[in-house]
Amino acid sequence: MKKEIRILGIDDMPFSFGDEKVDIVGVVMRGGTYLEGVLKTTIDVDGKDATQKIIEMVEKTKHRKQLKIIMIDGIALGGFNVIDGHEIYKKTGLPVITITRNKPDMKKIKEALKKHFDDWRERWEIINRKETEEIKLRYPAYVKYSGLSKEDVEDIIKLSIIRGAIPEPIRVAHLIATGIKKGESRGRC
């Protein structure tokens, strides 16, 4: 695995559930050390357009030819705008890793989907297409992935973490998104 592999890290800006839209930020980084570009698009809060908007973000960027991996903070952005990593992989040819530092509580996720969405079964199906797997590094991380082996996922995550449990492309996307929305970056992704 090349140390300077081009990774697109994606996170959403802070939002309220009363908001209709939320911006998502993508950062293009070489491994976890060199920021090459920042991308932005807008999705619906609790919508169903995040997968397509990420595909469009990838296809429209001048960095497209250099990108090798997409990393996303969690399985959903903008509330429950669920990410279909396999669909992104199929349409872009780029492997996708969704990652979170905390193990998802699948029972609570299903209850929330049932309570708030008529199409909860469709969202639940997308969430469950791949099993969440634990990656044991210095700190545990929980991932779903498409287009890679578990060994490759582990290697890419190790390569892109500088400190802590979250890969630098996602951490930087989070800092930029929070700083733009709140005027100053803070908090953990």
Keywords:
189 residues; archaeoglobus fulgidus dsm 4304 fold; 7-stranded mixed beta sheet; two-stranded antiparallel ribbon; 6 helices; globular
Could you outline the blueprint of secondary structure elements for this entry?
Elements: E1 6-12, E2 21-30, E3 34-44, H1 50-60, E4 67-73, E5 76-77, E6 81-82, H2 85-92, E7 96-100, H3 106-116, H4 120-127, E8 133-136, E9 140-146, H5 150-160, H6 168-182
Parallel strand pairs: 1-4, 4-7
Antiparallel strand pairs: 1-2, 2-3, 5-6, 7-9, 8-9
Q: Roughly what is the average pLDDT, rounded to an integer?
A: 94
CA-based gyration radius: 15 Å
Assign the structural class, choosing from mainly alpha, mainly beta, alpha/beta, alpha+beta, or little secondary structure.
Answer: alpha+beta
- What is the CATH topology classification name? archaeoglobus fulgidus dsm 4304 fold
Which strand order does the major sheet show?
3-2-1-4-7-9-8
CA distance, first residue to last residue: 26 Å
CATH top-level class? Alpha Beta
Main beta sheet: 7 strands, mixed
What is the assigned CATH homologous superfamily?
Answer: archaeoglobus fulgidus dsm 4304 superfamily
- The ordered H/E elements are EEEHEEEHEHHEEHH
How large a portion of the residues is in β-strands, by DSSP E?
A: 25-35%
Structure description:
The protein is globular. It has helices at residues 50-60, 85-92, 106-116, 120-127, 150-160, 168-182; strands at 6-12, 21-30, 34-44, 67-73, 76-77, 81-82, 96-100, 133-136, 140-146. The chain contains six helices and nine strands; from the N terminus they run βββαβββαβααββαα. It has 189 residues and is of the alpha+beta class. The protein starts with 5 loop residues before the first strand and ends in a 7-residue tail after the last helix. The strands form two sheets. The chain has a seven-stranded mixed β-sheet, sandwiched between helices. It has one domain (6-104, 132-182): archaeoglobus fulgidus dsm 4304 superfamily (archaeoglobus fulgidus dsm 4304 fold).
